[in-house]
Automatic annotation (TrEMBL):
Membrane keyword on record: no
InterPro entries found in the cross-reference section: 4Fe4S_Fe-S-bd (IPR017896), 4Fe4S_Fe_S_CS (IPR017900), Flavodoxin/NO_synth (IPR008254), Flavoprotein-like_sf (IPR029039), PSI_iron-sulfur_center (IPR050157)
Keyword Magnesium: no
Keywords, in A-Z order: 4Fe-4S, Iron, Iron-sulfur, Metal-binding
Domain 4Fe-4S ferredoxin-type: 172-202, 204-230
Classification via SUPFAM superfamilies: 4Fe-4S ferredoxins (SSF54862), Flavoproteins (SSF52218)
Entry-linked Pfam families: Fer4_7
Name used for this protein in its record: 4Fe-4S binding protein
Top-level taxonomic group: Bacteria
Segments forming domain Flavodoxin-like: 3-147
């Protein structure tokens, strides 16, 4: 039996949640970084005995298209999947059911699912500091329950909330821009999950390719990439009501 942690995490929140779950399952897991634009996912083939934690953020209540396309290149061969969707304290809507359908297509069986909260990667004041100690303790305890389920041979799929057909996916159109502090070091271009930033001149962005994931803002060593202040103000205001109350993680076994 081999464990995998398969994660799409542009700004690291999804990764933190996945780590907390994986730690509760095993001391060592093979990591597959779906965020890497140059990753070769075609050769990743699991067996029936293997267990994979598969984690994605929720974008407009859906699985990010880039993550979906990369997951469909994996080969599950009956491996057990623990699905994780991580959202910024607004709502995750159809993300988990969509993820369930995607992993079924490539041969995984779903043993458990989690909808967990992490800092909102655009409006970072919401769910700031999450996952926190309370989240990590809860997730690790749930991972131990999942391990027991797998060990007992129970292959029942959990009932996962969401709708089919899924809600319409909407692009935010928010494209972070370089500020005067940009020295064209190229870190953002190398780390962009979709190669939207020109490696020769990181001030040039392919707006159509950008998925608004905020990775360039998060990884810039000079804090030189930003979302337009007015847009950020409006997004923060729009999210105030749905995002302000702490939401609990949802666990499905
Ligand atoms: C384009 C985009 C759309 C998002 N849509 C939602 C959403 O519909 N609901 C929500 O609660 N959070 C939403 N978020 C917040 C992320 O789901 C959340 O911050 C997540 O932890 C980001 O994962 P990461 O840190 O691994 O990049 C969105 C973030 C981005 C960048």
């Amino acid at each position: 039996m081999k464990y995998y942690e398969i994660c799409f995490s542009p700004t690291g929140g999804t990764q933190k949640v996945a780590n907390a779950v994986t730690k509760g399952l095993t001391q060592s897991a093979s990591k597959v970084d779906l965020t890497d634009a140059k990753g070769n996912f075609d050769g990743i083939s699991l067996t029936k005995e293997d267990v994979a934690v598969i984690a994605v953020p929720s974008y407009s209540g859906r699985v990010p298209e880039t993550a979906a396309a990369r997951i469909t290149r994996l080969q599950g061969h009956g491996a057990s999947a623990i699905l994780i969707c991580v959202y910024g304290n607004r709502a995750y809507e159809d993300t988990l059911v969509e993820l369930q359908d995607i992993v079924h297509q490539v041969g995984f069986k779903v043993v458990a699912a989690i909808a967990a909260v992490a800092e909102h990667s655009i409006a970072r004041r919401y769910a700031a500091g999450r996952p926190d100690e309370e989240d990590r303790t809860q997730l690790a305890a749930f991972a131990r329950q999942i391990a027991q389920k797998i060990a007992s041979g129970d292959s029942c799929e959990p009932k996962i909330p969401g709708h089919r057909p899924y809600r319409k996916a909407g692009a935010t159109g928010i494209v972070p821009k370089p500020t005067k502090a940009c020295i064209n070091c190229g870190v953002c271009a190398r780390k962009c999950p979709v190669g939207a930033i020109n490696p020769a001149d990181s001030r040039k962005v392919d707006k159509k390719a950008c998925i608004s994931c905020m990775r360039c803002v998060a990884v810039c060593p000079h804090s030189a990439r930003k979302v337009n202040g007015l847009i950020l103000f409006l997004v923060n205001a729009m999210l105030k009501k749905p995002c302000s109350q702490r939401k609990v993680n949802e666990l499905y076994l």
